[in-house]
Design a protein that fits this description.
Elements (H helix, E strand, L loop, with lengths): L6 E7 L3 E8 L4 E8 L11 E2 L1 H19 L6 E8 L4 E5 L9 E2 L7 H9 L3 H8 L8 H15 L8 E5 H9 L6 E3 H4 L5 E2 L4 E2 L1 H6 L9 E3 L7 E2 L1 H4 L3 E8 H8 L8 E5 L3 E8 L10 E8 L6 E10 L3 H10 L8 H7 L8 E3 L17 E3 L7 H26 L7 E4 L6 H11 L3 E4 L4 H14 L5 H6 L3 E5 L5 H18 L5
Parallel strand pairs: 1-5, 5-14, 9-12, 15-21, 21-22
Antiparallel strand pairs: 1-2, 2-3, 4-7, 6-8, 10-11, 13-14, 15-16, 16-18, 17-18, 19-20, 22-23
Helix pairs in contact: 1-5, 9-14, 10-12, 11-12, 12-13, 13-16
Bound molecules: adenosine-5'-diphosphate.
The site of adenosine-5'-diphosphate has 19 residues, from helix 10.
Length: 503
Protein backbone atom coordinates (compact mmCIF):
# COMPACT_ATOMS: atom_id res chain seq x y z
CA UNK A 1 0.00 0.00 0.00
CA UNK A 2 1.23 3.49 -0.95
CA UNK A 3 2.43 5.02 2.34
CA UNK A 4 1.67 8.66 1.54
CA UNK A 5 -2.00 7.78 1.87
CA UNK A 6 -2.53 7.96 5.60
CA UNK A 7 -6.29 8.44 5.90
CA UNK A 8 -9.71 6.97 5.20
CA UNK A 9 -12.73 9.19 4.61
CA UNK A 10 -16.15 8.23 5.99
CA UNK A 11 -19.35 9.89 4.82
CA UNK A 12 -22.16 9.33 7.31
CA UNK A 13 -25.45 10.65 5.92
CA UNK A 14 -27.90 10.29 8.79
CA UNK A 15 -31.53 11.26 9.32
CA UNK A 16 -30.81 14.37 11.34
CA UNK A 17 -27.57 15.40 9.68
CA UNK A 18 -24.64 14.66 7.40
CA UNK A 19 -21.07 14.11 8.47
CA UNK A 20 -17.64 13.67 6.92
CA UNK A 21 -14.97 12.16 9.18
CA UNK A 22 -11.31 11.48 8.48
CA UNK A 23 -9.74 8.48 10.22
CA UNK A 24 -6.02 7.81 10.50
CA UNK A 25 -4.14 4.50 10.33
CA UNK A 26 -4.93 3.75 14.00
CA UNK A 27 -8.64 4.11 13.35
CA UNK A 28 -8.68 7.39 15.32
CA UNK A 29 -10.71 10.44 14.27
CA UNK A 30 -8.49 13.18 12.80
CA UNK A 31 -11.26 15.65 12.11
CA UNK A 32 -14.91 15.93 11.25
CA UNK A 33 -17.51 18.23 9.83
CA UNK A 34 -21.28 18.13 10.40
CA UNK A 35 -24.36 19.87 9.08
CA UNK A 36 -27.91 19.41 10.39
CA UNK A 37 -30.44 18.38 7.74
CA UNK A 38 -33.80 20.17 7.25
CA UNK A 39 -36.81 18.03 8.15
CA UNK A 40 -39.99 18.72 6.14
CA UNK A 41 -43.33 17.69 7.70
CA UNK A 42 -45.88 18.45 4.94
CA UNK A 43 -48.72 16.57 6.73
CA UNK A 44 -49.08 14.73 10.06
CA UNK A 45 -47.15 11.47 9.83
CA UNK A 46 -45.25 12.55 6.69
CA UNK A 47 -41.52 13.38 6.59
CA UNK A 48 -39.42 14.44 3.63
CA UNK A 49 -35.80 15.41 2.94
CA UNK A 50 -34.46 17.52 0.11
CA UNK A 51 -32.09 15.27 -1.90
CA UNK A 52 -30.22 18.30 -3.25
CA UNK A 53 -29.56 19.50 0.30
CA UNK A 54 -28.13 16.06 1.18
CA UNK A 55 -25.85 16.18 -1.86
CA UNK A 56 -24.74 19.79 -1.30
CA UNK A 57 -24.12 19.11 2.40
CA UNK A 58 -22.12 15.99 1.53
CA UNK A 59 -19.88 18.10 -0.70
CA UNK A 60 -19.50 20.93 1.79
CA UNK A 61 -18.80 18.52 4.70
CA UNK A 62 -16.03 16.90 2.64
CA UNK A 63 -14.52 20.25 1.69
CA UNK A 64 -14.73 21.49 5.24
CA UNK A 65 -13.08 18.43 6.81
CA UNK A 66 -10.14 18.72 4.43
CA UNK A 67 -9.88 22.47 5.09
CA UNK A 68 -10.07 22.19 8.89
CA UNK A 69 -7.57 19.32 9.20
CA UNK A 70 -5.17 20.50 6.49
CA UNK A 71 -5.22 16.94 5.08
CA UNK A 72 -5.05 16.81 1.31
CA UNK A 73 -7.57 14.62 -0.56
CA UNK A 74 -4.51 12.98 -2.19
CA UNK A 75 -3.70 11.57 1.25
CA UNK A 76 -6.92 9.50 1.37
CA UNK A 77 -6.65 5.81 0.50
CA UNK A 78 -10.38 5.12 0.23
CA UNK A 79 -13.83 6.41 1.12
CA UNK A 80 -16.73 4.58 2.80
CA UNK A 81 -20.36 5.64 2.65
CA UNK A 82 -23.06 4.93 5.22
CA UNK A 83 -26.56 6.33 5.12
CA UNK A 84 -29.96 6.52 6.78
CA UNK A 85 -31.79 3.50 5.43
CA UNK A 86 -35.10 3.01 3.56
CA UNK A 87 -35.41 6.74 2.67
CA UNK A 88 -35.81 6.81 -1.11
CA UNK A 89 -36.29 8.99 -4.16
CA UNK A 90 -36.62 9.16 -7.94
CA UNK A 91 -34.55 11.40 -10.15
CA UNK A 92 -34.06 12.34 -13.77
CA UNK A 93 -30.82 10.84 -15.02
CA UNK A 94 -30.42 13.45 -17.75
CA UNK A 95 -30.82 16.56 -15.63
CA UNK A 96 -29.78 15.06 -12.29
CA UNK A 97 -32.87 16.69 -10.73
CA UNK A 98 -34.97 14.78 -8.17
CA UNK A 99 -38.60 14.38 -9.26
CA UNK A 100 -39.91 14.87 -5.72
CA UNK A 101 -38.42 15.23 -2.25
CA UNK A 102 -37.13 11.99 -0.72
CA UNK A 103 -39.65 10.12 1.46
CA UNK A 104 -37.99 9.45 4.81
CA UNK A 105 -38.13 6.07 6.54
CA UNK A 106 -40.32 7.44 9.35
CA UNK A 107 -42.98 8.62 6.89
CA UNK A 108 -46.34 6.84 7.28
CA UNK A 109 -48.14 8.07 4.14
CA UNK A 110 -48.32 4.60 2.64
CA UNK A 111 -49.66 2.87 5.76
CA UNK A 112 -53.07 2.27 4.16
CA UNK A 113 -51.47 0.73 1.03
CA UNK A 114 -49.58 -1.68 3.27
CA UNK A 115 -52.73 -2.48 5.20
CA UNK A 116 -54.50 -3.27 1.92
CA UNK A 117 -51.68 -5.61 0.93
CA UNK A 118 -51.92 -7.29 4.34
CA UNK A 119 -55.67 -7.74 3.87
CA UNK A 120 -55.01 -9.29 0.46
CA UNK A 121 -52.73 -11.81 2.15
CA UNK A 122 -49.31 -10.61 0.95
CA UNK A 123 -47.63 -10.19 4.35
CA UNK A 124 -46.45 -13.77 4.62
CA UNK A 125 -45.00 -13.93 1.11
CA UNK A 126 -43.19 -10.61 1.69
CA UNK A 127 -41.76 -11.77 5.00
CA UNK A 128 -40.68 -15.04 3.43
CA UNK A 129 -38.91 -13.31 0.50
CA UNK A 130 -37.43 -10.26 2.24
CA UNK A 131 -37.25 -11.15 5.95
CA UNK A 132 -39.21 -7.96 6.69
CA UNK A 133 -42.57 -7.25 8.28
CA UNK A 134 -44.93 -5.65 5.73
CA UNK A 135 -44.82 -2.01 6.84
CA UNK A 136 -44.71 1.51 5.40
CA UNK A 137 -41.26 1.91 7.03
CA UNK A 138 -39.50 0.17 4.12
CA UNK A 139 -38.86 1.70 0.69
CA UNK A 140 -41.14 -0.41 -1.54
CA UNK A 141 -44.46 1.32 -0.83
CA UNK A 142 -42.73 4.73 -0.78
CA UNK A 143 -41.24 4.18 -4.27
CA UNK A 144 -44.67 3.04 -5.48
CA UNK A 145 -46.18 6.25 -4.08
CA UNK A 146 -43.51 8.38 -5.78
CA UNK A 147 -44.10 6.68 -9.13
CA UNK A 148 -47.86 7.26 -8.83
CA UNK A 149 -47.23 10.87 -7.95
CA UNK A 150 -45.00 11.36 -11.00
CA UNK A 151 -47.54 9.69 -13.30
CA UNK A 152 -50.28 11.97 -11.99
CA UNK A 153 -48.37 15.23 -11.67
CA UNK A 154 -45.67 14.99 -14.33
CA UNK A 155 -47.20 12.74 -17.00
CA UNK A 156 -44.67 14.03 -19.53
CA UNK A 157 -41.81 12.33 -17.63
CA UNK A 158 -40.30 9.44 -19.59
CA UNK A 159 -39.67 6.60 -17.12
CA UNK A 160 -36.71 5.45 -19.23
CA UNK A 161 -34.96 8.59 -18.02
CA UNK A 162 -35.72 7.98 -14.35
CA UNK A 163 -33.56 6.32 -11.70
CA UNK A 164 -34.66 5.10 -8.28
CA UNK A 165 -32.63 4.62 -5.17
CA UNK A 166 -32.07 4.97 -1.49
CA UNK A 167 -29.79 7.76 -0.18
CA UNK A 168 -26.60 5.74 -0.76
CA UNK A 169 -27.57 5.24 -4.41
CA UNK A 170 -28.34 8.92 -4.93
CA UNK A 171 -25.09 10.09 -3.36
CA UNK A 172 -22.99 7.39 -5.02
CA UNK A 173 -24.38 8.43 -8.41
CA UNK A 174 -23.42 12.04 -7.70
CA UNK A 175 -20.04 11.25 -6.14
CA UNK A 176 -19.01 9.12 -9.11
CA UNK A 177 -19.88 11.82 -11.64
CA UNK A 178 -23.13 9.96 -12.50
CA UNK A 179 -21.25 6.79 -13.46
CA UNK A 180 -22.38 4.30 -10.80
CA UNK A 181 -26.06 3.55 -10.17
CA UNK A 182 -25.52 1.08 -7.38
CA UNK A 183 -26.31 0.09 -3.82
CA UNK A 184 -25.03 -2.57 -1.44
CA UNK A 185 -26.76 -5.64 0.00
CA UNK A 186 -27.33 -4.06 3.44
CA UNK A 187 -29.22 -1.08 2.03
CA UNK A 188 -30.99 -3.16 -0.61
CA UNK A 189 -32.23 -5.55 2.09
CA UNK A 190 -34.21 -2.62 3.61
CA UNK A 191 -36.20 -1.78 0.49
CA UNK A 192 -38.57 -4.78 0.86
CA UNK A 193 -37.72 -5.51 -2.78
CA UNK A 194 -34.61 -7.67 -2.34
CA UNK A 195 -34.98 -11.43 -2.06
CA UNK A 196 -32.92 -12.73 0.86
CA UNK A 197 -32.60 -16.13 -0.83
CA UNK A 198 -30.90 -14.76 -3.97
CA UNK A 199 -29.66 -11.36 -2.70
CA UNK A 200 -31.12 -9.87 -5.91
CA UNK A 201 -34.20 -7.76 -6.66
CA UNK A 202 -37.32 -9.90 -6.43
CA UNK A 203 -39.22 -9.59 -9.72
CA UNK A 204 -42.54 -10.62 -8.15
CA UNK A 205 -42.24 -7.85 -5.56
CA UNK A 206 -41.20 -5.26 -8.15
CA UNK A 207 -44.37 -6.21 -10.07
CA UNK A 208 -46.51 -6.13 -6.94
CA UNK A 209 -45.38 -2.56 -6.18
CA UNK A 210 -45.42 -1.52 -9.86
CA UNK A 211 -41.72 -0.63 -9.96
CA UNK A 212 -40.01 -1.17 -13.34
CA UNK A 213 -36.80 -3.18 -12.82
CA UNK A 214 -34.74 -0.80 -14.98
CA UNK A 215 -35.20 1.96 -12.40
CA UNK A 216 -33.42 -0.06 -9.73
CA UNK A 217 -29.69 0.15 -8.97
CA UNK A 218 -27.21 -2.69 -9.27
CA UNK A 219 -26.66 -4.47 -5.93
CA UNK A 220 -22.99 -4.87 -5.02
CA UNK A 221 -21.13 -6.29 -1.99
CA UNK A 222 -20.93 -3.83 0.94
CA UNK A 223 -17.14 -4.16 1.06
CA UNK A 224 -16.30 -3.89 -2.61
CA UNK A 225 -15.78 -1.63 -5.58
CA UNK A 226 -18.20 1.30 -5.98
CA UNK A 227 -16.09 3.32 -8.40
CA UNK A 228 -14.27 6.53 -7.50
CA UNK A 229 -15.18 9.99 -6.24
CA UNK A 230 -14.98 12.00 -9.43
CA UNK A 231 -11.85 14.13 -9.81
CA UNK A 232 -13.99 17.24 -10.41
CA UNK A 233 -15.23 17.07 -6.79
CA UNK A 234 -12.04 17.06 -4.69
CA UNK A 235 -9.35 17.53 -7.34
CA UNK A 236 -8.34 13.88 -7.17
CA UNK A 237 -10.03 10.51 -7.53
CA UNK A 238 -10.76 8.62 -4.29
CA UNK A 239 -11.83 4.94 -4.52
CA UNK A 240 -15.17 4.21 -2.82
CA UNK A 241 -14.75 0.78 -1.27
CA UNK A 242 -17.59 0.36 1.23
CA UNK A 243 -21.30 1.16 1.38
CA UNK A 244 -23.46 0.21 4.37
CA UNK A 245 -26.82 1.03 5.88
CA UNK A 246 -26.08 3.08 9.01
CA UNK A 247 -27.07 0.40 11.51
CA UNK A 248 -25.09 -2.29 9.76
CA UNK A 249 -22.05 0.01 9.65
CA UNK A 250 -22.26 0.42 13.43
CA UNK A 251 -22.51 -3.37 13.86
CA UNK A 252 -19.34 -3.71 11.76
CA UNK A 253 -17.51 -1.06 13.82
CA UNK A 254 -18.37 -2.82 17.09
CA UNK A 255 -16.66 -5.95 15.82
CA UNK A 256 -19.90 -7.96 15.85
CA UNK A 257 -18.86 -10.54 13.27
CA UNK A 258 -19.78 -13.67 15.24
CA UNK A 259 -23.26 -15.10 15.64
CA UNK A 260 -25.07 -13.58 18.63
CA UNK A 261 -22.87 -10.47 18.96
CA UNK A 262 -25.07 -7.39 19.11
CA UNK A 263 -25.22 -3.61 19.56
CA UNK A 264 -27.82 -0.89 20.00
CA UNK A 265 -27.53 2.49 18.29
CA UNK A 266 -29.44 5.41 19.81
CA UNK A 267 -30.00 7.96 17.02
CA UNK A 268 -33.21 9.33 15.57
CA UNK A 269 -34.57 5.85 16.22
CA UNK A 270 -32.94 3.00 18.14
CA UNK A 271 -31.81 -0.14 16.42
CA UNK A 272 -30.77 -3.31 18.18
CA UNK A 273 -29.00 -5.65 15.77
CA UNK A 274 -27.55 -9.10 16.38
CA UNK A 275 -25.20 -10.78 13.93
CA UNK A 276 -26.63 -14.12 12.81
CA UNK A 277 -23.70 -15.35 10.69
CA UNK A 278 -23.84 -16.65 7.15
CA UNK A 279 -27.07 -18.56 7.74
CA UNK A 280 -30.31 -16.62 7.51
CA UNK A 281 -32.13 -16.69 10.88
CA UNK A 282 -35.84 -16.03 11.19
CA UNK A 283 -37.50 -14.50 14.23
CA UNK A 284 -40.57 -15.85 15.98
CA UNK A 285 -41.01 -12.53 17.78
CA UNK A 286 -41.51 -9.88 15.13
CA UNK A 287 -37.84 -9.05 14.62
CA UNK A 288 -36.51 -8.50 11.12
CA UNK A 289 -34.13 -10.73 9.21
CA UNK A 290 -31.80 -8.54 7.23
CA UNK A 291 -28.34 -8.38 5.66
CA UNK A 292 -25.55 -7.34 8.02
CA UNK A 293 -23.01 -6.86 5.22
CA UNK A 294 -21.54 -8.69 2.27
CA UNK A 295 -17.98 -8.99 1.03
CA UNK A 296 -16.71 -9.33 -2.51
CA UNK A 297 -14.95 -12.66 -2.34
CA UNK A 298 -13.55 -13.24 -5.79
CA UNK A 299 -16.67 -14.29 -7.72
CA UNK A 300 -19.38 -15.10 -5.17
CA UNK A 301 -20.00 -12.53 -2.43
CA UNK A 302 -20.15 -13.78 1.16
CA UNK A 303 -23.19 -12.44 2.98
CA UNK A 304 -23.63 -12.10 6.73
CA UNK A 305 -27.15 -11.80 8.05
CA UNK A 306 -28.61 -10.19 11.16
CA UNK A 307 -31.70 -10.06 13.33
CA UNK A 308 -32.92 -6.56 14.05
CA UNK A 309 -35.36 -4.74 16.28
CA UNK A 310 -36.15 -1.29 14.86
CA UNK A 311 -37.65 1.36 17.17
CA UNK A 312 -38.67 4.37 15.09
CA UNK A 313 -38.64 7.44 17.30
CA UNK A 314 -36.26 7.67 20.24
CA UNK A 315 -33.70 10.51 19.77
CA UNK A 316 -36.38 12.04 17.54
CA UNK A 317 -38.55 12.48 20.67
CA UNK A 318 -35.75 14.53 22.25
CA UNK A 319 -35.59 16.63 19.10
CA UNK A 320 -39.36 17.07 19.34
CA UNK A 321 -39.03 18.27 22.98
CA UNK A 322 -36.56 20.86 21.65
CA UNK A 323 -38.05 21.94 18.31
CA UNK A 324 -41.73 21.01 18.62
CA UNK A 325 -42.64 21.56 22.27
CA UNK A 326 -39.74 23.97 22.95
CA UNK A 327 -39.53 22.42 26.43
CA UNK A 328 -35.73 22.23 26.26
CA UNK A 329 -33.05 24.25 24.50
CA UNK A 330 -30.66 21.41 23.77
CA UNK A 331 -30.65 17.60 23.89
CA UNK A 332 -27.92 17.27 26.60
CA UNK A 333 -30.04 19.38 28.97
CA UNK A 334 -32.43 16.42 29.33
CA UNK A 335 -29.80 14.61 31.44
CA UNK A 336 -29.78 17.32 34.16
CA UNK A 337 -33.53 17.82 34.02
CA UNK A 338 -34.25 14.10 34.43
CA UNK A 339 -31.90 13.85 37.41
CA UNK A 340 -33.47 16.87 39.14
CA UNK A 341 -36.52 14.75 40.05
CA UNK A 342 -36.68 11.33 41.74
CA UNK A 343 -39.08 9.81 39.27
CA UNK A 344 -41.63 10.77 36.60
CA UNK A 345 -44.37 11.37 39.20
CA UNK A 346 -46.36 8.54 37.59
CA UNK A 347 -46.08 9.80 34.00
CA UNK A 348 -45.44 7.36 31.14
CA UNK A 349 -44.66 8.38 27.58
CA UNK A 350 -45.37 6.25 24.52
CA UNK A 351 -42.88 7.31 21.85
CA UNK A 352 -45.06 6.34 18.88
CA UNK A 353 -44.56 9.59 16.95
CA UNK A 354 -44.31 7.56 13.72
CA UNK A 355 -46.25 4.51 14.84
CA UNK A 356 -44.56 1.64 16.62
CA UNK A 357 -41.89 -0.64 15.16
CA UNK A 358 -40.55 -3.79 16.81
CA UNK A 359 -42.06 -5.77 18.37
CA UNK A 360 -45.52 -4.22 17.79
CA UNK A 361 -45.46 -3.12 14.13
CA UNK A 362 -48.45 -0.87 14.59
CA UNK A 363 -48.53 1.86 11.94
CA UNK A 364 -51.60 3.41 13.52
CA UNK A 365 -50.21 3.84 17.05
CA UNK A 366 -49.53 7.46 18.04
CA UNK A 367 -47.56 9.11 20.84
CA UNK A 368 -49.09 9.74 24.24
CA UNK A 369 -48.45 10.83 27.82
CA UNK A 370 -50.40 8.86 30.41
CA UNK A 371 -50.69 9.20 34.17
CA UNK A 372 -50.57 13.01 34.30
CA UNK A 373 -51.79 14.63 37.53
CA UNK A 374 -51.70 18.24 38.74
CA UNK A 375 -48.23 18.06 40.25
CA UNK A 376 -46.48 17.03 37.04
CA UNK A 377 -43.78 19.42 35.89
CA UNK A 378 -41.54 19.85 32.88
CA UNK A 379 -38.81 17.75 34.49
CA UNK A 380 -41.15 14.77 34.91
CA UNK A 381 -42.22 14.99 31.27
CA UNK A 382 -38.60 15.10 30.11
CA UNK A 383 -37.68 12.17 32.34
CA UNK A 384 -40.66 10.15 31.09
CA UNK A 385 -39.49 10.69 27.49
CA UNK A 386 -35.96 9.48 28.29
CA UNK A 387 -37.24 6.49 30.24
CA UNK A 388 -39.50 5.51 27.32
CA UNK A 389 -36.42 5.14 25.10
CA UNK A 390 -34.96 2.60 27.50
CA UNK A 391 -38.29 0.76 27.89
CA UNK A 392 -38.55 0.29 24.12
CA UNK A 393 -35.08 -1.21 24.03
CA UNK A 394 -36.06 -3.53 26.89
CA UNK A 395 -39.00 -4.85 24.82
CA UNK A 396 -36.68 -5.65 21.93
CA UNK A 397 -34.05 -7.26 24.17
CA UNK A 398 -36.82 -9.46 25.59
CA UNK A 399 -37.87 -10.43 22.03
CA UNK A 400 -34.24 -11.26 21.12
CA UNK A 401 -33.92 -13.35 24.27
CA UNK A 402 -37.05 -15.28 23.33
CA UNK A 403 -35.62 -15.91 19.85
CA UNK A 404 -32.13 -16.95 20.94
CA UNK A 405 -30.63 -19.75 23.07
CA UNK A 406 -28.26 -17.58 25.15
CA UNK A 407 -29.65 -14.62 27.13
CA UNK A 408 -28.11 -11.26 26.28
CA UNK A 409 -25.68 -10.38 29.07
CA UNK A 410 -24.13 -7.13 27.83
CA UNK A 411 -25.38 -4.31 25.62
CA UNK A 412 -22.88 -2.39 23.47
CA UNK A 413 -24.20 1.03 22.54
CA UNK A 414 -23.44 4.02 20.33
CA UNK A 415 -25.20 6.93 18.58
CA UNK A 416 -26.02 10.52 19.51
CA UNK A 417 -28.43 9.82 22.37
CA UNK A 418 -26.07 7.30 24.03
CA UNK A 419 -24.12 10.36 25.25
CA UNK A 420 -26.90 10.81 27.78
CA UNK A 421 -25.62 9.29 31.04
CA UNK A 422 -29.03 9.30 32.71
CA UNK A 423 -30.44 7.32 29.80
CA UNK A 424 -27.59 4.80 29.88
CA UNK A 425 -27.85 4.34 33.68
CA UNK A 426 -31.58 3.85 33.39
CA UNK A 427 -31.05 1.45 30.48
CA UNK A 428 -28.76 -0.74 32.61
CA UNK A 429 -31.34 -0.68 35.42
CA UNK A 430 -34.32 -1.59 33.30
CA UNK A 431 -32.42 -4.38 31.50
CA UNK A 432 -30.59 -5.61 34.59
CA UNK A 433 -27.37 -6.06 32.54
CA UNK A 434 -24.31 -3.82 31.97
CA UNK A 435 -24.32 -1.28 29.15
CA UNK A 436 -20.97 -0.55 27.50
CA UNK A 437 -20.25 2.73 25.70
CA UNK A 438 -17.21 3.22 23.42
CA UNK A 439 -15.11 6.39 23.34
CA UNK A 440 -16.01 7.10 19.71
CA UNK A 441 -19.78 7.30 19.52
CA UNK A 442 -19.78 7.73 15.75
CA UNK A 443 -19.66 3.97 15.28
CA UNK A 444 -21.64 4.40 12.07
CA UNK A 445 -18.93 6.47 10.39
CA UNK A 446 -16.24 4.29 11.95
CA UNK A 447 -17.83 1.20 10.37
CA UNK A 448 -17.85 2.82 6.93
CA UNK A 449 -14.19 3.80 7.34
CA UNK A 450 -13.17 0.35 8.63
CA UNK A 451 -14.98 -1.33 5.71
CA UNK A 452 -13.43 0.89 3.04
CA UNK A 453 -9.93 0.70 4.56
CA UNK A 454 -10.08 -3.10 4.84
CA UNK A 455 -11.51 -3.54 1.34
CA UNK A 456 -8.65 -1.55 -0.21
CA UNK A 457 -5.91 -3.10 1.95
CA UNK A 458 -5.16 0.08 3.93
CA UNK A 459 -5.83 -2.15 6.94
CA UNK A 460 -5.48 -5.92 6.90
CA UNK A 461 -6.69 -7.11 10.27
CA UNK A 462 -10.32 -6.46 11.23
CA UNK A 463 -9.95 -7.94 14.73
CA UNK A 464 -6.93 -5.78 15.50
CA UNK A 465 -8.73 -2.66 14.30
CA UNK A 466 -11.76 -3.43 16.45
CA UNK A 467 -9.58 -4.28 19.47
CA UNK A 468 -8.00 -0.80 19.32
CA UNK A 469 -11.35 0.89 19.92
CA UNK A 470 -11.41 2.42 23.38
CA UNK A 471 -14.17 1.93 25.91
CA UNK A 472 -15.54 5.10 27.49
CA UNK A 473 -17.70 3.73 30.26
CA UNK A 474 -19.64 0.72 31.51
CA UNK A 475 -22.98 1.32 33.22
CA UNK A 476 -23.80 -1.34 35.80
CA UNK A 477 -27.36 -1.96 37.08
CA UNK A 478 -27.90 -0.06 40.35
CA UNK A 479 -30.11 -0.61 43.39
CA UNK A 480 -32.90 1.11 41.45
CA UNK A 481 -33.14 -1.73 38.95
CA UNK A 482 -36.13 -3.47 40.57
CA UNK A 483 -38.17 -0.28 40.62
CA UNK A 484 -37.26 0.40 36.97
CA UNK A 485 -38.32 -3.12 35.98
CA UNK A 486 -41.63 -2.75 37.86
CA UNK A 487 -42.27 0.53 36.09
CA UNK A 488 -41.66 -1.18 32.76
CA UNK A 489 -44.89 -3.15 33.34
CA UNK A 490 -46.82 0.10 33.75
CA UNK A 491 -45.23 1.51 30.61
CA UNK A 492 -46.38 -1.53 28.64
CA UNK A 493 -49.90 -0.80 29.85
CA UNK A 494 -49.56 2.74 28.45
CA UNK A 495 -48.35 1.31 25.14
CA UNK A 496 -51.49 -0.81 25.00
CA UNK A 497 -53.56 2.38 25.20
CA UNK A 498 -51.70 4.10 22.34
CA UNK A 499 -52.00 1.22 19.90
CA UNK A 500 -54.49 1.17 16.99
CA UNK A 501 -55.07 4.89 17.53
CA UNK A 502 -55.77 5.99 13.96
CA UNK A 503 -57.54 2.79 12.95
P1 LIG B 1 -28.94 9.99 13.24
O1 LIG B 1 -27.74 9.22 12.74
O2 LIG B 1 -30.20 9.17 13.30
O3 LIG B 1 -29.13 11.30 12.57
P2 LIG B 1 -27.35 10.63 15.66
O4 LIG B 1 -26.63 9.39 16.09
O5 LIG B 1 -26.57 11.72 15.00
O6 LIG B 1 -28.66 10.27 14.81
O7 LIG B 1 -28.04 11.21 16.99
C1 LIG B 1 -28.89 12.31 16.92
C2 LIG B 1 -30.09 12.08 17.82
O8 LIG B 1 -29.63 11.92 19.15
C3 LIG B 1 -31.04 13.26 17.79
O9 LIG B 1 -32.36 12.75 17.61
C4 LIG B 1 -30.89 13.92 19.17
O10 LIG B 1 -32.12 14.38 19.66
C5 LIG B 1 -30.35 12.79 20.03
N1 LIG B 1 -29.38 13.28 21.05
C6 LIG B 1 -28.19 13.86 20.84
N2 LIG B 1 -27.58 14.15 22.01
C7 LIG B 1 -28.40 13.73 22.99
C8 LIG B 1 -28.35 13.74 24.42
N3 LIG B 1 -27.30 14.23 25.09
N4 LIG B 1 -29.40 13.22 25.09
C9 LIG B 1 -30.46 12.70 24.45
N5 LIG B 1 -30.56 12.66 23.10
C10 LIG B 1 -29.56 13.17 22.38
Amino acid sequence: METKQKYVLALDLGTTGNRAILFDGNGEVVGQSYGELTQYYPHPGWLEHDPMEIWHDTRSCMEQVFRSTGVSPQGVAAAGLTVQRETCLLWNKTTGEPLHKAIVWQDRRTAHNCRELTEKGYAEKIQESTGLVLDAYFSASKLAWLLDWVKQNQPEVDLDKVLAGTVDTWILWNLTGRRVHGTDHSNASRTMLMNLGTDEWDSELLDLFGIPAHLMPEIRPSLGDFGVIDEEILGTEIPIRAVFGDQQAALFAHGCNQKGMLKCTYGTGSFLIAQSGQELTRSRNQLLSTVAWSEANGGKPVTNYALEGAMFTTGACIQWLRDGLKLIKSAPETDTLARSVNDTDGVYFVPALSGLGAPHWDMSARGGFLGITGGVQREHIVRAVLESIAYQVKEVVDAMNQDGDTPISLLKVDGGASQNNFLMEFQADVLGIPVERPAILDATAQGAAFGAGLAIGFWNDYDELVAKRKRDRSFIPSKNQHQAQDNFQMWQKAVGRAKNWTE
